[in-house]
Structure formats: structure tokens, C-alpha cells
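Researcher: Last one for today. Full complex below.
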Amino acid sequence: MTRKQRRLTLIGCALVVLAIAAGLVLNALRDSIVFFSTPSMVAEKHLGPGKRFRLGGLVEQGSLKRGDNLAVTFTVGDGGATLPVAYKGILPDLFREGQGVVAEGALDANGVFRADTVLAKHDETYMPKDVADALKKQGHWKDDYGAKPNSMPSASAAPTQGAMR
Amino acid sequence: MIAESGHYALVLALALALIQSIVPIVGARWRDAALMNVARSTALAQLLFVAASFAALVTLHVTSDFSVANVFENSHSLKPLLYKITGVWGNHEGSMLLWVSILALFGGLVAAFGNNLPLSLRAHVLAVQAWVASAFYLFILITSNPFLRIANPPIEGRDLNPVLQDIGLAVHPPMLYLGYVGFSISFSFAVAALLEGRIDAAWARWVRPWTLMAWIFLTLGIAMGSYWAYYELGWGGWWFWDPVENASLMPWLAGTALLHSALVMEKRNALKVWTVLLSILTFSLSLLGTFLVRSGVLTSVHAFATDPTRGVFILLILFVFIGGSLSLYAWRAPALKQGGLFAPISREGALVLNNLLLTTACATVFIGTLYPLALEVLTGEKISVGAPFFNFTFAPLFVPLLLAVPFGPLLAWKRGDLLGAAQRLLVAGIVALVAIALVLAWTYGGATLAPLAIGLAAFVIMGALCDLAERIALFRIPLSLSLRRARGLPRATWGTAFAHAGLGVALIGIVCETTWNSEYIGSMKPDDVARVAGYELRLDGLNPRQGPNFREMVAQFTVTRDGEKVSVMTPSKRNFTTRGASTTEAALLTRGASQLYISLGDTSADGAIAVRIYHKPLVLMIWWGPVLMAFGGLLSLSDRRLRVGAPKPAKAAARALQAAE
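Model: Here's the assembly. Have a good evening.
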């Protein structure tokens, strides 16, 4: 083989691998990405049952009900609309009423959001970033969400603290 | 006083770094040895001052000086000593200080052990190292100073995030940073080579040990982080394809590719331009990881604080270094001479394939990680790219890579014999097929892909063993002779075998854990019994307990199997009073490589407690794999051929003398 042929073989191999990878990526991007919505966005977009998405918002006060065998239901709201959520399993350590939550799942035929994962990507003072952004955008952001419960001493501007997976 | 000294030491380190950034380059231009040697002294002095600064912060944390904001926010006087120390880097400011400390450490090591480097190369390398250091000192001093005081010191601190109060924090971040920052050395060498316009096989011989060292630490750091997430977060998951995990995986993939391409360059003087590019890319990905984790664009356990100015500053550093080095590359790389020729089927060819697949896999991770961020910036639409994306893209690219792994070491340099290699791998192929058949028969009607993956893993492991057997001519010559050959094999060969086998071991763990994991989720009352994978777990009772800075509810489970008592497991739920946060302490019971895993949920009004019990078959192999890989790396690092900088042992020198006589 000449130098040119060798180089062509090499480039050919590289192109094949890259083409395969590009195909895989495009295919996966079409099928396996999950969109983020708040209850108002769900109402606007008329999302159909069975379509997976991430729901973010605040757990409504007094809405958490525990059923048999770890079944729980609660309502997620964003100040505009609310959406009932059903989940079976153990809620994360940081799950609280009145605080931000992100759940992944799909709507069922009755318009109930069946979550298979509930994420609490925040701690006691912090909102999940997705939720905070969405609430801000809709004008339902309350300034005191981000602030610390007890007033901070001077010198350090209230930092929002570490988050949970 | 201590805080101010620490702050001052850091400013001095910045001043030294600025001198080190300029003087040696000028010296190299003027061919002035004295000016070039300035780099050595400044690098060592920088290390001294950063170490002093770091020691100051540790002292502040240990003595619980709450007049310092960083200590107040992340410490508590009742916190155990270990967490007072590890809490130093359990926050944004402190972890950045750890970052620069390690950067200074590597700079100091190059200065101390780089005596046999050409003077101008060392000057350039240390200057580039100082550019990076200066940028990060400025970042710390301007946006994230850990030594700021509070005007009215409070009496008690706000405690460290409970999730981080674990031995994992003592190991994971330093390891990971040693890996991330270690790649700065190969970056500096690459930029230095571009500045000098000269690069040769000797360059690769100097770069490879540093890359290998960084790679070993990164491998262990990632594995440790994964195990920590597994036992601490209570979900029993060990890899989430979370952006911060991907941020560490990308430099690992690029670094692994770099390790292999540097080999080609060292042995055959080929792939020079590519190796330089990989060096730049690997460290760029490390910087990107730092940006993703530290800027607050992502929410995760790693993002300690979000402050827009920090994000912008790191982004600026990112643009300057990645953009700058890549432009330099585009400008100077064509000047580097092309190296040796090789046939597509050869050791070089196999290593090129390795590089191709590793970098492509890295690119898919890159896209999956950054696409959501880019989309949000461009269209405002929020999406999440999760495990399915990576399973569909990353996995298919890794299968051919794993298939090719055993062939690589069996092919000769320059021109290989694929058929011959295949013949020598016959045993491995047979073992793989037997493994597939056995697993298929055993799990009849179950998953079909899993047995194939196990077969692939068996092929990789046996392939590594075949390579060793081939080299020591096992069973073809008397055993004693084989053993003598085995002792004579270069350590790097053993290293390769261990590292490659580690891949297979990890794959077995991953496949078994994801496919045959059994779980029980339910609420249990005392004396209830749960059955998981042949084990019976009886909840004996719940007991409250008081810890140093938390209260916990401990559940006691008696584990029996076939009526025989195996062990007692005590998972707990901790409540940290200061932060009002709770954590789940999972209980783990190791049986061989498999584990039983219990984590607790909430207690309900009627005294029942939510319980999650998993049986994870062969799960430990997931982490044994990386440990094997790192061990292989260590063996390879100790190979005499690689120790350019090490002084020759007296014995060898004496023997050489005798031979000369």
C-alpha cells in the first residue's frame, strides 16, 4: 500500500465510525430526550397521555396523601395551574409540601401524572433550578423562595446551598 | 490572623505565577539559562505558598473559627474532626483552593523531577502551567475568596451539607482533582511543544508517565465517586449519566485515548499531531468539567453555590485556554514533522482504532451533556437527556472497542497478522462462547443481550490472559521456564493485561447489576419479614440514637438464608438538627461480589417504616474493574522504561560498569 492509500483507509474508517455515531446520536435525540413542563405549560400544550415529560413545580400545601403500600398522591402547582401526581415508592429525603419538586413520568387517561421518579434536586432552602426558572418566567416567582429562613450575617451574600441529586 | 496570612500567601502565589508566566518564556527566546531557570524556583516557591494558604484554611476549619464566612457556612463545632478537615473542600471556595493546590503540586513536581528535560522545554512547560495557575488564582481571589471575614462573628456554624459528611469526601474530590489537574501537565507539554515548534519521541516519553499518573487518579476518583453515590444517596444506583458525572467521564475517555496514542508516538514516532491535539482536548474537557460543576449551570450535589459572576469568570478562563490552545494548534501544528508509516492492520492501527472509538464515544457524551444547555440558551426550551440517550449511543460504540481490545496487544508494530492474532485468541473466543451458553441456559427465557455482554466481558478478560500466556509461552515450554519468563516480562505488559482485564470485570458487574437486580419496596412493621433473592430479612425493631451532630433512627434487620442466620443489618435515617436536613444511611451486606442493600424511607403514623431492599448480584465487580485498571496503570508507571526522570539505581549502574569492563 502506498502512503496515500493508507491515509485513505484511515480516513475512510474514521468517517464510517463518525457516521455511525452521528446516526446513533440523531436517533437517540429523537427518541429519548424528555421535555420539562410546569402544570400551566401542560395545560397550554395539551400534552397527550403516554408522552413522557418532566413535571416541575411546587408541591401544594396539604395535598400529600399516603395510600396503601407506599402509594402517594400529591398536587403540583405553579401558581397558574395544578396537576395531580400519583407515585408509588419512597419519596426523597428532601420532599416537602410547599417546596419545589421535579417528577418524571407521563399523564394517564384521567389526566393524572403517573410519576416513576421523583427528584428533589435541592435542599431545605433551594428550589430546583428548572422550577425556579419556569416560575420566574411566568411571573409567579416570590422573592423569598431563594432567601434563607434566618437572616444571614453580613459579608456573605446569601448563597444558595448544595443540592441533592 | 491565620485567615489573613492564608489570603496573603495566595496573593504571593499569584505574583509568583505571573513571574513564572513571563520570565522563562523571555529566557527561552534570549537563550538565557538563568532566566529559564527562574521557572524552577518560582514553581517550587508557588507550591510552598499555596500549601501554606491551604494549611491556613484547614487550620481555620479545625479550630472552628466562625469569624471566617467559609467556616461559618460549612462547619459546626460539634462536627467530627475528620469532617472538619474534609469540609475544607466540601464547598465551592475550598474546593477551588484544593484545585490550585494540586495544580501547584504538579508544577512543583515537574520543577523538582524534570532535571533531565531540555532546559527550554522545561521553561515553556512551567510557564504554561503558570498561565493556568494565574487564571485560577485570580478566579479565587476575585470571586471565591475562602478567607473573607464576617463583621459580627456568630457563635455556631451552619454545618456541612449532611450528604457530604462521609468518608467519601476525604477520598473522592482529592483523587478526582489529582486526575483532572494532572492532565494540565500533558496540556502544558503540548502547548510548550507547539510554542517551540519541536516534538519527538522523547517528548512522548516524558508526557506519558504524567498522563498515566493523572489517569490512574481519575479512574480511582470516578470509581470512588460512583461507589459513594451508590451507598450514600439511598437509591442503589451507581451511575446516573448526570451531567456532573459525564463531566468527569469525558476527560477520562480522552485521557485513555491520549495514553494509547502517546504509546504510538513514543514507540513509533507517529501520530504526533494527533497526540498533541488529544493532550489539549483532554485538559480542555477537564476545564469544561470544572466549569459545568463550579459555575452553577447544573443543579446537583456537586454544585455548592450559584453565583453568576463565577460562571462568567470560569467561562472566560475556558474560552481563553481552549480557544487559545486550539488556535495555537491550528497555527503551529502543520509545522510539526509527520512521523513513521504503518499498515492499517498493526499495533499502531489497533491503537488508532482505539483512539477513534474512544474519542467518538467521548463526543457522544459531550453532545448528550451540552445539548440541553445549548438548547436552553438558544430556544429557552428545557429538556433532559438521560440514561436512554447514552445507552443508545455510548454502548454501541463501546462494543466494537471491547471486541478489539484483546487483538491490540497481540498485533505486531508496523505490520500485524490479524489471522495469527485471531488464532492466539481462539481460547478466549471459546471461553466467551461457553460463557454465553452457560448464562443463556441458566437464565433461560430471560434477557438475551445480557448473556452476550457477559460473553464479551469473558472475551476481554481471557484475551488479556491469552496475551500473557502467549508471551511466557505457557504450556509450550516447561512451566519453570514460563515462570522465569513471566518474571522477566516488562511491568508495562502486566499493566496492560490488568487494565484490559479490568474492563471486562467492570462490564460483568454492570451487566449483572442492571439485569438481575432484585428489589423489595414496601412498608414494614417490627417482626415483618421481607424476602429478596433467597434471603429473609426480619425487621427486629427501630431504635433512636444520638450522634455528635445528628439524631438517627436505626432499624435492625436480621438476615437469614435457608433458616440460617447470616448477619444483622442496621440502616438508619439521620436528622441533622442544624440544617434540618435528613440523610439515609444505607446498610450494605457483602456476600462475595454481591451485596444486599437496605435503605429507609419515612415512618408512617401506625409505626410502619418504608423500606427499600435490593439484592445486587456481582455489583462490587463494577468497582473492582476500575481498581484493577488503576493497578495496571500503577504497574505500568513503575516500569523502568517509563521512568525517564528517575535516577538509575546504583546496582544497575554498577552492573553496567562491570559489563563495560
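Residues 122-126, 141-165 of chain A have pLDDT under 50 and may be disordered. DSSP finds three helices and seven strands in chain A.
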